[in-house]
Amino acid sequence: MTPRARFDRRVAGRAGVLAAALAAALAGALAGGCAHAPGGAAPKSGSAGARRAPAPDSITTALWHLDENVGTRAADAGPFALEGIAGLDTRPDFGRVKGARVFEPSLDSFVYVAYNPVFDSGGGFSVEAWIQPTAYGDFEDTPIAARWTPRANQQSWLFALVGRRLSPPAVTATSPGDHLSLVSQGQVGALLFAYVPAEAGAAKAFTSNHPILLNRWTHVAATSDGSIVRLYVDGLLDGQFASPGAIRRSDAPLILGNYLDPRLLSDFGGDLRVNGALDPHAYYAFQGLIDEVRLSSAARVSFPEGEVR
């Protein structure tokens, strides 16, 4: 081989190495996503698929992406089209996956979904959501999603964060104590799942071992298969509890981000709001963002993982 040929061969080899390095860098940048994507910085390595919206499957009862940019409609991507209506004190914002709803400490901060018999179908149950709480509640808890109202026999299950359980003079109001029996042992910020058994008996309540952190997105889930209740945080099993028995059927609606009496809801004037409340204090209102709420008719065993940090 001539000196010129050897020189050309070395140059070509170095060019190939450089091209491969550039290609790898470009691929990494594309996989990492944009730091200005909705919801904050893109997931780090190992969670590139975490921002994909979940899709309905054979056990999905309802799935609210909460992606609406305007208005009070909350569309259901599940098979039964169980559309929700948002209260006037919620608003759309960037979410964990596309859009989400911001919830405020107000009675008119909620998403309401009327009762449908499919809520009580299936031999098991799962509820899950992405949440970014900005504060823990001052009182017993702040519901993420619940079929649990003050009306007689309208309590099936409640999925919430444990609050700070403050009393005057630390706060200006005294809690009505509606959920005191559910949070007697949970630490502040812990995930709470409670349900009323199908057979006569007191409500059962379970809390996670670790609190949900403020101001970051966390995937949370609770399941029941009729024998065991499990709580998941960022896709990992955080606690499991032997609890035989089904969840009680009721005609309670689904309410996201609050606890209120549905008899006080009125659409007079065109928007759904709480009218006639004797006490206007929002004791149980969730504070922060909620995204991708899904109910399932079976106990799921896998959930999205949180971001690698």
Rg over alpha carbons: 23 Å
Are there runs of 5+ residues with pLDDT below 50, and where?
1-50
Q: What can be said about the biggest beta sheet?
A: 8 strands, antiparallel
CATH class: Mainly Beta
Shape: globular
Q: What does this 3D model show about the protein?
A:
This protein is globular. The protein contains one helix and 18 strands. It starts with a helix and ends in a 13-residue tail after the last strand. Helix content is about 10%, strand content about 30%. Strand 13 (about 230-235) and strand 14 form a beta hairpin. The chain has one domain: Jelly Rolls. It is mainly β and about 300 residues long. The strands form three sheets. Strands 1, 4, 5, 7, 12, 13, 14 and 18 form an eight-stranded antiparallel sheet that branches. Strands 2-3-6-15-8-9-10-11 form an eight-stranded antiparallel sheet, with no helix packed on it. The protein has a two-stranded antiparallel sheet with strand order 16-17. The longest helix is centred in the first third of the chain and has 30 residues, at about 5-30. The model is unreliable at about 1-50 (pLDDT under 50).
Quick summary:
The protein is mainly beta and 309 residues long.
What topology does this entry show?
Elements (H helix, E strand, L loop, with lengths): L2 H30 L27 E5 L8 E2 L9 E3 L4 E4 L4 E5 L7 E3 L11 E9 L7 E8 L6 E8 L27 E6 L8 E8 L6 E7 L3 E6 L2 E7 L11 E3 L8 E2 L6 E2 L13 E9 L13
Antiparallel strand pairs: 1-18, 2-3, 3-6, 4-5, 5-18, 6-15, 7-12, 7-18, 8-9, 8-15, 9-10, 10-11, 12-13, 13-14, 16-17
